[in-house]
Amino acid sequence: TVENVGGDYIEAVFAQAFDAAEAVDDSNWTLVVDGVGVTESDQTFTYDFLAKTLRIDLDFDMVNGDSFSLTGNSVRWRSPFTEPAITEVTPINLAVGAVSWPPEGATSVALDLAINERATLEVAGDIDIGTGDGAFTYDLAELQMPWFNPALPENVKVQLDSGAVSVDGSITLAAFAPGTVALNTSLTDFALEQENGERKFGSFKAIKLDQLAVDIPAQQVALERFVLDTLQGRLHIDSEGTVSTSHLMAPAPAGEETEVTEETAATETEATPEGATAEAAPWQIAVKEIVVRDTSVDFADESLSSEFRTDIQSLDGSIVGLDSTSSEPARVN
Fold it and tell me: What distance in Å separates the CA atoms of residue 263 and residue 269, rounded to the nearest whole number?
């Protein structure tokens, strides 16, 4: 909140842009200040589509230490990068603890929302607005991958047939910059198919990352376990030597290949000052275990004088002890 002559205002910044008409419709929002409901029709709602910012000009002054919550009864937005094109987010619940101005101490923040009645997001934590230090937990569940097919590049000739992403973990902030990140994530029931739906290129039951920890200041990454579960792949080489995976992307039109020009080379040279090294301190990466379960691959090579085809089935195994700082070899089982 920021004090002004006609009353304070609240600014809510979102990661996704809304339909402007929906965002400024006061019937879509419920605002509670210090436990007391506010009459939305008496407030002024304005929305900046490019900045993804909703501003609510209040007809009263808030008091330092007041808490407030903003609940979205239903918000919809249209995007050419999602299918369905209209995404509905309902409900949207935002609660902010005691807020002081000038900033003093930590403020609690909680957000939960649901997308298209399938995916959910919950974020909760505390942040000191004055210093930018804080800590949050987050839980994203069942984000559907096929929703984003329209966002794939035009030269990609496959579609996301199925798949759902879930992520839960925590993050710490120092001066508003990420310090440490801890998470568990999974992509489940994933499948790629040709645009016309005639052929599936591959699928798996799940890819999981368990207990991933990233310490950005220390440049350290540690992963407890990576799991690839029930991968079913297809790799065929036709009589002309073309690999089936080459059909995943269309070739670039003639003349659009990237060329290194003298101007490009000069720009790259200027990016690194004379006498400076482009090499930074290496990150330390450790993966305790990689697990592969029940993997199968259909392989065929029709380019040979005698056609060859085989099915690799029920492949199980693990790699233990990958560590960029250790001289000990990893164990393969």
Answer: 10
Full 3-state SS string of 47-107: EECCCCEEEEECCCCCCCCCCEEEEECCEEEECCCCCCCEEEEEEEEEEECCCCCCCCCEE
First to last CA, the chain: 58
Write down the pTM of the prediction: 0.70
Quick one: 217 exposed, middle or buried, by C-beta within 10 A (0-12, 13-18, 19+)? exposed
Calculate what percentage of the chain has a pLDDT beyond 70. 85
Task: Kindly write down the DSSP assignment for every residue of 306-325, as one continuous string.
Answer: S-EEEEEEEEEEEEEEEETT
Rounded-to-integer distance, Cα 314 and Cα 293, Å: 8
> Do residues 284 and 312 make contact, with C-beta atoms less than 8 angstroms apart?
no
**Which range scores top for mean pLDDT: 77-91, 94-108, 177-191, 249-263?**
177-191
Tokens of 154: 């035009």
Is 293 within 8 Å of 229 (Cβ atoms)? yes
What pLDDT is recorded for position 145?
95
Indicate left, alpha or beta for 157 from its phi (over 0: left) and psi (-120 to 50: alpha): alpha
Cα–Cα distance between 47 and 12 in angstroms, integer?
10
Q: What's the number of CA atoms in the CB half-sphere (13 Å) around residue 149?
A: 18
pLDDT in tens, 200-237: 778 999 999 999 999 999 999 999 999 999 999 888 78
Amino acid 158: pLDDT: 84
Tokens encoding 139:
């839980």
What distance in Å separates the CA atoms of residue 69 and residue 98, rounded to the nearest whole number?
Answer: 11
Q: What confidence score (pLDDT) does residue 210 get?
A: 97
Upstream peptide bond of 103 is cis (omega within 30 degrees of 0): no
Distances (CA, A) of 114 to 2, 29, 257: 29, 15, 42
Model confidence at 1, pLDDT cuts 50, 70, 90, reads: very low
Q: How many CB atoms lie within 10 A of CB 16?
A: 12
Q: What is the pLDDT of residue 198?
A: 61
